[in-house]
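Q: Is it fine to ask for two folds in a single conversation?
A: Yes, each is treated on its own. Send the first.
Q: Here.
A: Result:
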Amino acid sequence: MFMLNPHSADFRFPPVDFASPEGLLAIGGDLRAERLLEAYRHGIFPWYNEGQPILWWSPDPRAVLFPKKLRVSRSLKKTLRANPFKVSLDTRFREVIQACALPRKKHGAGGTWITQEMLEAYCRLHEQGYAHSVESWAGDRLVGGLYGVALGGVFFGESMFSRASNASKVAFVYLVRQLSAWGYTLIDCQVPSAHLESLGAEEIRRRDFLALLDKALLLPDRKGRWHFDSNLTVLNSE
């Protein structure tokens, strides 16, 4: 297993082919913005629990969603037409990641993989214009959302939360429609889940993911605070 020096200015990672069968590639290092961005550019992401060293992963296969293949169920279309939530971009990044960091009931009384160290690192990425949040509002109450990192034509989804039925799904649909309108070609979902599969996520081989990633990174970064296009179409004729 590769050990990363947290004091080094060399942010390079070993080739992902050296990852374990579970996808674990390296241990240690730090969460400086330069290292995080280097990781994402090579299909690597941090994922670890409180009390563990930083663990860096590149799983095979990889869960992705192609924006043009977004799947909106009949019930979700009905929710979108009812328009129960106001959806915004980059207005409450810290609140969104804090909500994502709260323990989930389905995981019992355990902790969260979004440690305080992780939270602060992604807030710094947000301040630098690389990390973004989507918020669903019921009146003035934040009821759902998600956050992730954007580089080139790729959005790397990190986590989502929901305090009202379909609030995170609605936020996700808005985001995917906007990314598609901006020419993004790939959404990295990292590992599969039934929730994401219901929205059209699929698994592909890591080598195929890396080829798509390299191509998408040729597109310019869209840094800074994001806003939805005023003419964004959320409910396509499907």
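Q: Second one now.
A: Result:
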Amino acid sequence: MAGIIIQLALTWLFAWLFEKGNLSVLGLMPSKRRLSDFFFFFLLAAGCSTSVFLMQHLIAQQSWKLNPDLSWNVVAEGFWWNLKSVLFEELIFRGILFYILLKKLGMLKAILISATAFGIYHWFSHEVLGDPMQMLITFVTTGIMGAVYAYGYAKSWSLYIPIALHMGWNAVQSVIFSNTVIGKQLLIRTAPDVEVTVSYAAYFTMLLLPMLLIWGLGFWLLKKRKQDDPPVFNNFI
């Protein structure tokens, strides 16, 4: 949490130095439209993320059961970990530096730079550095997802959409289906192991189709969305 507070302080400092701005560059002040955006894109991302596991069930007969050690503390800690990790990444890659890139370079170049940095960052967070194939897969998948998040900020001048997309996808992966490093959460896998029970074609189909779905729907819906105006610096946030 201390890291996020430092990020917010740096955001304020850079915003002030860049154009005498403030934390409103993040678009954090709630409004009816921003809250509507948040819930809509959160559910969209969560639905696409859930389709990963639905296809694993239909194609590979994979199954899950309720975690026998489940408690409110386990779920709360899972959601809190997810929230912190999302906020940390969003403040880095769609925060003040991305705002400056948008102002200086325009939408397309800013999104490409942000998405590239996001993809490279995940070489380290996913610990795939040194494995060329995994580095390529990680760079492409997380880079394109990062472009969707960045486009969400660029269209709305707010972190509500990128945070919603990011949290919706990650919460299903980590908290609902226990598919990340935080360990057992709501549901745990019983059997079988997808990697050894289906062909490589089926395996990658189960992984890629949901990503193609969230990429395609995300870009399409954001393209149709009306462009919001840049922030006006008359409030603290």
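Q: Anything structural to flag on that second result?
A: Two points. The two ends are 19 Å apart (CA to CA). Strands lie at 64-66, 187-189.
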